[in-house]
Every structure is written in C-alpha cells, then in structure tokens.
Amino acid sequence: MRSSLTSSNRAGWAFALPGITLIFAFIILPFFLAFGFSLTNQRLISPNATRYVGLENYRDLLGLAVVTLDAKRDAGGAIERDAEGRPEFPRVRSVTRNPDYPQYRGMREWFRWTGGDKAHVVIASDVVFMKALFNTCLFVLIVAPLQAGFALGLALLINQRLRGITIFRAIYFMPVVVSIVVVSLLWRFIYDGHDGLLNNMLAALSWGHFRPVDWLGNPDTALGSIIAMSIWQAVGFHMVIWLAGLQTISPTLYEAAAIEGASKWQTFRYVTWPGLRHAAVLVLIVITMQAFALFTQIDVMTKGGPLDSTQSLVFQAVQRGYGLQDIAGGSTISVILFVIVLTISLLQRWLTRER
Amino acid sequence: MKMLNLTAGALIAATGFSSAAFAQTTLTMWYHGAGNKVESALINQIIDDFNASQSDWKVELESFPQNSYNDSVTAAALAGNLPDILDMDGPIMPNWAWSGYLQPLPIDAAQFKDFLPGTKGIYDGKLYSIGLWDAAVALYARKSTMEELGLRTPTLDKPWSKDEFMAAMKAAKESGKFDAAIDLGMSDKGEWYPYAFLPFLQSFGGDLIDRTDYQSADGVLNGDAALAWGDWWQSMFKNGYAPGTSEDPADHENGFIDGKYAFSWNGNWNAVKTMAKVEDVEFLPAPDFGNGSTIGGGSWQFGISAASKHADGAADFIKFATQDKYLAAFSDAIGLIPATKSAAQMTENYKEGGPLAVFFGLSQAQAKKRPVTPGYVVESKVFQKAAADIADGADVADTLDAAVDQIDADIKRNDGYKTH
Fold it and tell me: Mean per-residue pLDDT for B356-360?
C-alpha cells in the first residue's frame, strides 16, 4: 500500500521542500559534522591536516578521578592544624604535577570532602566543563518548574473578562518580544554592584540597612541572578501557551462544576488541570530545551565568570570552538549536550504519556 | 524593441571603451573601522588620493565593525575570498601568516627603518605587516591628586617601584575621596587583558610563554616570578584598590574623568578626550616591579593576502599610505601614536613638547610585543581567563598551573605551530 505521502502529492512535497532543505542544511548536516569533528583534532583555522583521534576529546572532557590526601604531619607525627584547628593537607598540585603520577597530569580539583585526617579530592581533566555541566543542570532544574508555574499563574490571572485585560497581557508578553541581548544589557545595569536599580531599591525598602551586593560579581549570587532574570524574560511566552490551553477548555465544564458546587480549588484540580494536559507537556519540553541552550545571558552579562560560577555548556562550546579555535572540543560538547537533551526529552515523553 | 537593443549595444560599447581607456586594475581592501566616521573619512581620503595619483590601480574599500572583523576574515579565508589588502591587529598576524592567509610584504624593509618597533609585524624573519600608528598605555593621574597625596612624579628614567606604586594606591584609598584607587578596565574581557596586564607579569620577570622557542609556558607562566605577580594582582582587588571584573564598562571611559578614581590604567586613544575634560591630567609610565617598566606594543597594521594576484599594486598602496602626512593625519584625528618621529613632529599632540609626546617616548622605550607566535590567539584567551579568575579570588598557583597545562596542550595539538 502506498501511503499518501508518496502518492500524487507533488504539491505537498514542493511546499515542504524549502523547509526540509533548510532544516537539513542547517540542523541535520551540522549535527553529523559535529559528531565527525568530535572524533578528530579539527581546528578552526590551521594549515595542519586534520587527524582522527578516536575518543580523546571525550576523555579530555569527561576524565574524573578521586585522590585521597593524607593530612600533613610534623616531625613528631602529629597532624598539622591551621588556626581553626582543621587539619592541613598538602596541595593537590603535589599529586597532579608529580612525575610519579603521570595519569593525573593536567587534572584539577573540582571539589573535595574531608573526613578526619583524610581529604578526598575529586579531580577532573576539565574542571570548567564539569562546572558548566553542573550549572546548566542546576539552571534547568530551577528554571523549568518555576517558569512553568509562574507562567500558569499569570495565564490564570489574565484569562478573565475584565476591562483593559489586554494591557496586562501585553505587559507580561513584552520581555519576550525584546531582544534577549538588550534585556541582558539592561539587567546588567539593574544588577550593578554599586548603584544598580536593584541595590538602590532594596536600600530604600530597608531604610538604608541593606548593604549593596555585587550581584554579578559574586560567585554566590551570579548564577541566581541570571536564573531570576531568565525566568522573568521568557515567562510571558509560556504564559501564552498556557492561555491557549485554558481557552480550549469548554465553558460548559465550568458551568457544570459550578452547579455541582465545586470549590475554586476543586474546579482547578478536576477541570482546568486535566484540560491543560497537552499544554503542560509542551511547556515543559520547550522550557527544558530552551534552558539547556543557555548562552546569550552568560555571554552578555558574565562571560562565565566570576570563578566559573556561570559557565554553561553552550557558552563553553562556543568559547572553545571560536575563542580557542578548537572546533573538535566545541563539537564534543555539542554532542554531549545533544545526548543529554535527547535523553531527558525521551524521559519526559515517557513520564507524560497517555496511560 | 530595436531601439532598446541599440541603446544596450551602445552602452556595452561605451563601457568597453572606458575600461580600455583607463585600464585600471581593481584592488580590494578590508578595514576594521566601520561605524567610526573619523577613521572612515581618513582611510577614504588616502584611497582617493592613491587612486588619483596613478592610473594602474584602483583600491576599493570595504569596512567591517571591529567586533566581527576577525571572524569575517577567517570566514573569507576558509571560503577563499580574501581581499588583496587587509588590516589586522598586530598580535594575530603570526596566526594568519602561519595559516597561509598572508604573504610577506614585497617591500624593502629599509623603507620602514624609522618606524616604531611596535608597528612592524615581523614573523619568521619576514615583514608581513606594517602599521601607520602604534598605541600605548599609561598611568593616568591628576597633578593635583599627586601633590595632595605627596607622591613623587615618576619618569621614564625613574619609574615608580612596586613599593612606591603600592604606597600610592594606599594613599589614594585612604584619602577617602575615591570609589577606588585605580581603574584597570577589568570589565573589558578581551584583548585588553593581555595587552594591558601582560606587561605587569613581564615586569615581575614572568611571561605568557617561553619566548626562546614558543613551545611551552611551563616555568614561565607558573614560575616564582609569575606566582609573585599573581599574589600582587589578587591583592589589588582584595584590598579594594581596583574595581573587579564586574566593573561598569562605562567607568573605564569616564570614571577617571568623573573623579571616581585617582588613577586609571588606560590607552592613549582616551587621552585626547581626557585632556579636554581634566586640565591637569598627567600620563605616567608603568611601574617597575623589578624587571623593568614595560607596556604592550603593536596595534592595527596593513598586510597583503596570500591569495592576492596583485601584490605589487597592494605594495604600492601600502607604501603610499605610510607617508608621513597620513601618519600625522591619523594621529591628529584619533590620537594614535604616529609610526615615525618625523610624522610625530607634524602632529599637534606628539611633536616635541606636545601634550602626548610622552606616549611616543613610552612606545619607543618600553613597548614589548605580545608573544609573536601563531599560538598567541589561544594563549591570549587563556591569559584572559587566568587574570580574571585570580582577580576574582581563585587560588593563584592552581590557576596558573591550569593555564600552563592548557597552553602546552594546545601547542602539542598543533604540532608546535611549526611553519610549513
């Protein structure tokens, strides 16, 4: 049996052709190229021929090891302690730059935990990549539920027949329309550590008790600041998707619920929420994918700093490919990111499947 | 219809005639100054003069914004579309020469014997590029502040020592009149970092890479001198002498003028503007941290692409453009240091006794080029990150070790950046 896709459907194919060509040329082909590059030492520009290097790029990115350091002891065998009584440990570089341990050469400390007179140090071949991976996952974990939740709240608020409600809709949607580069620049001023809007506002609200925080210059607050700004920026987009979902729910269902004497919460729980099922799946997957692609905010606001606290996978991929001219390394990160996003999307599809 | 054919024929004939009559060969040229009106007017003036001065060549200019210029050149090179003449930032030249984008200038080096060393792009013993100007960095200060804080005015012969410099920082901070003692321009996370801050490391006795063979940074970027530099560098921010990496970019332009900072580590391209607003501004030489007082050299320069079929014409243009009158014109318009002493005498600011003459001296006496190796493009990025991380409070030794590992791994991956 010939499917309708192949039989007497030239016009359809003709219409689809430009789109398919573009998707093939700019998405599918680059993906396979990236996969190929990740197995070579491809440079951005170089007169040297490209060589096949196998999985070396993956090893350089993902290499991890745990080393155990014994506390320093003085001549009498007692543990040396610092001013606060904690044992002192030899520097990690005494292992990573020691010719006796060639396998750890070039690795750096990622994090450590201490137990008694031993310190267990996790060292990674590429600490920056590990931090980028961690930050990106953290970003997704926080942004996805919060952004979806706020967007739903806003959608419920503006899904009412009030005079002038379109003004609110427009206001909430505005940040989505403004270029993310412009938004990032503006928020850089808002977060300014000296006389930024946020610091001034908090100082005014607390009658001057609030001490200004250098939001983007402090490793503890930088990622949080970017998360808050990112949630605000795209919340309007998902609000519209929720709103579309809300407006497909038939008013008769609400009338029936009212006649049955359902409370507001019951109406939401048993009428609204089940009706939003498809919107919820869409919103969740879109937010997850957008959040994994975190780049522009980082590039404009912090460039991954301070102390790698805002590195992200896509930013690192670009940084390596173009900044360090290491196309192979950048491609490798892209492939890893692809695998992560694919896995999570499949997982989400499976979790939200129709039962 | 017939009428139309006739006109078209006449048109073709006319064009044919005109090109036969002039027989000019077109040379394409790329320049990084799009969006800068003053610079565009100057470069167009030079091109018009050149085109009018002879009948063999006709230069056609295409300008790009500086931010995307290098990407455009790379893309064009990969696609085989490079122009005949192109300009480039000095330290990137070895990378492009190594990659085969450039050809050595077919011009006798004696032509440029009076040029400042920073304006000559020499790689592998051959002259690849030549600049109309150089740039220099100096310590901006106010005469009144210096007197108030009781500081000795440093000179080229006797610059501040590390102790004197730190005493000045301390005095400025303790006066309580400034947001911070010095503005270093930390928000400009780009080529500014190696250009402005590498000289500090060199003054401590370290460097970005071992310059004898450019094969490793081990022991140079993480040796004792470099560790001392790192500790000092970190102390500048820890003690609150300088605003850190989250500084507002506008403050590097105007902070000193507005009186937010007692000193500013800034380029001569801001000098004209600052002089107009701060009457008693002084431009002081870099402090000597033990191994001499140095600043970075090498600015934008002209070269000829390897693909050019008309290298002789391109060389004619470069010779024409490097006349003293054009060097002086560029300097007068945008405050850059003219490449020759004779041109300097023709300018407002750099002639003997001129307000910026000190920069000519700085450039001549102190300018040290960034490492002349194709690997510099990567090393520059590694240095940027290391300097920013140390400023943000990272462990000095670990950060410099990591930078060394990254540089050495990159050199190895590129087979030592050997010329072919």
Answer: 83
At A25 the pLDDT is 94
Nearest by Cα to B400 from B229, B213, B194: B229
Architecture of domain B137-295+375-417: 3-Layer(aba) Sandwich (3.40)
CATH superfamily of B26-132+298-369: Periplasmic binding protein-like II (3.40.190.10)
User: Sign of torsion, CA B235 B236 B238 B241?
Assistant: positive
Residue B172 corresponds to which tokens in the numbers above?
A: 């400025």
Calculate the CA dihedral of residues A144, A150, A153, A158 and round it to 10 degrees.
-120
Q: Please determine, for residue B23, whether its predicted confidence score (pLDDT) is greater than 90.
A: no
Alpha helices in B175-262 (DSSP H): 192-204, 224-238, 249-254
| Rounded Cα gap, residues B185 and B200, in angstroms | 14
**Would you say residue B4 has pLDDT above 60?**
no
Kindly report each contact of residues A53-57 with a partner whose C-beta sits within 8 Å and lies 24 or more positions away, as own/partner.
Answer: A53/A328, A57/A328, A57/A329, A57/A331, A57/A332
Look up tokens 């001219």; give the residue: A325
Bridge partners (DSSP) listed for residue B117: none
A→B interface, C-beta within 8 Å? 41, 43-48, 91-93, 96-97, 106, 108-109, 127, 192-194, 214, 216-217, 219, 303, 305-308, 319, 322-326
Chain B residue with CA closest to A105: the answer is B405
| Stretch(es) of chain B classified as CATH 3.40.190.10 | 26-132+298-369, 137-295+375-417
Domain spanning A128-351, CATH architecture:
Orthogonal Bundle (1.10)
Q: Rounded CA gap, A156 and A162, in Å?
A: 13
Rounded CA separation A51/B16 (Å): 51
CB atoms within 10 A of CB A36: 15
3-state secondary structure A67-89: EEEECCECCCCCECECCCCCECC
Radius of gyration (C-alpha) of chain A in whole angstroms = 26
- What does the alpha-carbon distance between residue B400 and residue B220 come to, in Å, rounded to a whole number? 10
Distance from CA of A332 to the nearest CA of B (A): 16
Q: What are the pLDDT digits (tens) for A143-174?
A: 999 999 999 999 999 888 888 888 888 888 89
Beta-carbon contacts of B141 under 8 Å, excluding residues fewer than 6 positions away, are: B262, B263, B281, B282, B284
How much is the pLDDT for B35? 79
- ipTM of model: 0.84
Mean pLDDT, chain A, rounded, equals 89
Contact A217 B394 (CB under 8 A): no
Nearest to A305 among B74, B245, B378 (CB): B245
The reported pLDDT for the residue numbered B332 is 86
Chain B positions with Cβ closer than 8 Å to A: 71, 74, 77-78, 95, 98-101, 179, 189, 244-246, 248, 377-378, 381-382, 388-389, 392-394, 397-398, 401-402, 405, 409-410, 413-415, 420
pLDDT of residue B6: 44
